[in-house]
């Protein structure tokens, strides 16, 4: 090396070192900021308000108390075949460390805030490369992506998305460090810093990270597919086989256990608590192609709505369409650039969204978990495209584009800033909690501790009252987007839990939903077996009905209480 090039080399290395240190500082600030904001955003509302959160905690309590992997909120020992065990296991450790519910609720929610903040830091690292100005900009975009109102709606509840995204980001960081690919790593350093064990060590780490994601949420299968595809496309058979083994062994073990216990879940509650495979098979049986097309059509609209909610809130009409098209095109262009250094980072959201599009369930929550990555992908495209487009714009085009971008940016920041000020993500928690409060108070006052309660929100009723609770309606995959069930079919769903579990009360909020229609159908068809004992007032009307099994006379709980008082006197 010549004397002239030596100083230049040292200068380049010095600048790279400064950039790496700056990147580490920004990553730390991102993690700490997201952590503090997410912890501050927690609501003191009990488990079960989102349904799945109550089920996760019930599984965690069962594991923490040595009762196996079963739903402790249900009567009997119903095995937890629906939800993979990773997130409940993490909650179980926290349960053991911080005492019993509800005193441990703050610690449990803080754990989710930690996972969400670490996922934010990892996502920043996936996209942070180049000069310091770019790194700082990516840091700001990352903060925005992880602190929007939708982000808070999943990060502040006992849901598995924070741990899932953390595991996915970890796997994507490992994929970015593939020792077999040329070029610098995510921090600008030489990728030649090989993994222990070489390429197979890297494949093992990637496979284990994929397994953690799958054992957190079943949709983690999409991550494993995204990790494998680049290896298969490049015919790296040995690495692909090793990754498959490391991811597949834990995944197959879980699936085998779940399958072996699936029959132990009663049919009356199989929709809410049975295996995904059986549930999906029922929904697609006999008309899979037609049903899938219906589901894709139903799920596409919420995807666009979610992107609007995050990217261009309050925009409408032509302006909304143009901006969404621009940002969508930017995301595609960004993906093409990202592909060169980390194809898995592109494949993961594609495969993930492909599965969500065909899944017969309300998809908003699923989109919230992936929108941060899509947001950074769109920013990647804008950053790369801006210098190339700028030369083709007329003189007035640059300031006009800058003004338009500033207007939409400020609009989004103001919208989500006001959302934080009003804590608008909490409405889906506070509204049903207020509506259920008088119902749960009546249950605590008028029922025995072992009384089985049927409810549309049975996990929340359980955690708020201490009573065992079961679903009051059948949750079927074939029902998504359909409202054509006959009263007889609907009523049979409630009747099944009355017979199987001896449920003597049903508590729910009236409205346009299947649980309410199920109760209305039951009361219409069996008026002699249902007595309304409580109805609340307000925008959300709650009711409690006393129930009787087939062939048995109905009783009046209040009359029984009067008779008991008279006997005592």
Question: Brief overview, please?
Answer:
By secondary structure, this protein is mainly alpha-helical.
| Biggest sheet statistics | 5 strands, mixed
Count of spatially separate domains: 2
**Helical stretch tally:** 23
Q: Strand order across the biggest sheet?
A: 2-1-3-5-4
Low-confidence stretches: 184-193, 562-569
Structural classification: mainly alpha
Percentage of β-strand residues: under 5%
Rg on CA atoms, Å: 27 Å
Give the overall shape.
Answer: globular
Mean pLDDT: 88
Q: Give the SSE order as H and E letters.
A: HHHHHHHHHHHHHHHHHHHEHEHEHEEH
Distance between the termini: 105 Å
Question: How helix-rich are the residues, as a percent range?
Answer: 55-70%
User: What is the number of E strands?
Assistant: 5
Structure characteristics:
single chain, 569 residues, mainly alpha, 2 domains, 5 strands
Outline the structure in words.
The chain has 569 residues and is mainly alpha-helical. The chain folds into two domains: 5-422, no CATH class; 428-568, no CATH class. It is 66% helix and 4% strand. The chain has 23 helices and five strands. A five-stranded mixed β-sheet has the order 2-1-3-5-4, sandwiched between helices. Strand 4 (530-535) and strand 5 (542-547) form a beta hairpin. It starts with a helix and ends with a helix.
